[in-house]
Write a structure and sequence with these properties.
Blueprint lengths: L2 H8 L6 H26 L4 H22 L4 H8 L6 H16 L2 H33 L5 E7 L3 H28 L2 H17 L6 E6 L3 E4 L4 E4 L4 E6 L3 E6 L5 E4 H4 L10 H13 L8
Antiparallel strand pairs: 1-2, 2-3, 3-4, 5-6, 6-7
Helix pairs in contact: 1-4, 2-3, 2-6, 4-6, 5-6, 7-8
Length: about 290
């Protein structure tokens, strides 16, 4: 069934105000500096007029996105199922780069500020859209097994130690670079710091669902779908059930978190392994989202 048809069946006449507000905030962040540049070219703006113009742009963007995009759950789901969902974040970065080259000094600073937060808002929009897509194509009625696990304890500790070290070192470099006015050190430290913060999340507990369309991974704030065609095989070790992937890191499900096979044969390690193998036997041709 097409994504649009599935959404129309489940959410006929519905709206998605959360996505509408997120999309509106993104547009407000991205459009603010160009709008201020245009207004400043017509009539010089002071601080008060600039602030009023900023509020006007944000309110107009949120209202417009809520009224248009938020009223079309089918379009949101289709957008989330395409690679175009990353375009808003990339557009915010491109706009900030363009302003860095061509705008006056004050607007360069504003462009970098709004570009950074516009990129984060664009990533949030992508995550929300992908979640809507996953909900549309992998509904609860297609789920054959569900389990909540993290990586094995030893592997999780190694990840936390490495990511924690990167966070501390990156934070020190970020702060130290700012103190001594070394832009390269400051920027490099910032990148390492954020890499460490993101890395700490690797291997943490997630909820997984084996659905007809693929393996659904619930990250609490958003969901993603791994089609069965992206998984090359499964195996079991002493401490984990492993989903092997060709081009990306394997997924590991700690046996200790899955429970006793004798007490809960469907949710234990053997049950999860059997569910995965059944789906892989009839894998589809979907691409990873």
């Amino acid at each position: 069934m097409a994504v649009a048809e599935q959404v129309r069946r489940d959410e006929a006449g519905g709206t998605d105000p959360v996505f509408g507000i997120a999309a509106g905030l993104y547009l407000g962040l991205v459009l603010t500096v160009p709008a201020l540049l245009a207004l400043d070219a017509v009539a010089r703006l002071d601080g008060g007029a600039g602030y009023v113009a900023f509020l006007g742009v944000v309110v107009f963007a949120v209202a417009g996105a809520w009224w248009t995009v938020g009223r079309r759950p089918d379009l949101i789901a289709q957008f989330g199922g395409s690679r175009l969902r990353w375009a808003p974040a990339l557009a915010a970065v491109a706009l900030a780069a363009a302003l860095l080259v061509a705008a006056p000094d004050l607007f360069v600073i504003l462009g970098l500020f709004f570009g950074l937060f516009g990129c984060l808002a664009g990533l949030a929009v992508a995550g929300l859209a992908r979640t809507r897509y996953v909900e549309a194509v992998a509904g609860e009625e297609t789920v054959s097994a569900e389990w909540t696990v993290g990586w094995p304890t030893a592997a999780r500790r190694r990840v936390v130690a490495a990511a924690g070290s990167a966070t501390l070192l990156g934070g020190a470099g970020w702060f130290g670079g700012a103190v001594v006015d070394a832009a390269a050190v400051e920027f490099g430290g910032l990148l390492v710091f954020y890499a460490g913060v993101v890395g700490i999340q690797v291997g943490q507990e997630r909820t997984y669902r084996a659905a007809d369309a693929g393996l659904v991974i619930d990250y609490r704030l958003y969901r993603r779908l791994l089609p069965w065609s992206s998984i090359s095989g499964v195996s079991r070790t002493d401490d984990a059930v492993v989903c092997h992937r060709r081009w990306r890191p394997d997924l590991r499900f700690a046996v200790a978190d899955l429970g006793d096979d004798d007490a809960s044969p469907d949710a234990g390690a053997d049950g999860v392994l059997d569910a995965l193998e059944r789906h892989l036997d009839r894998r589809s041709e979907h691409t990873s989202v």
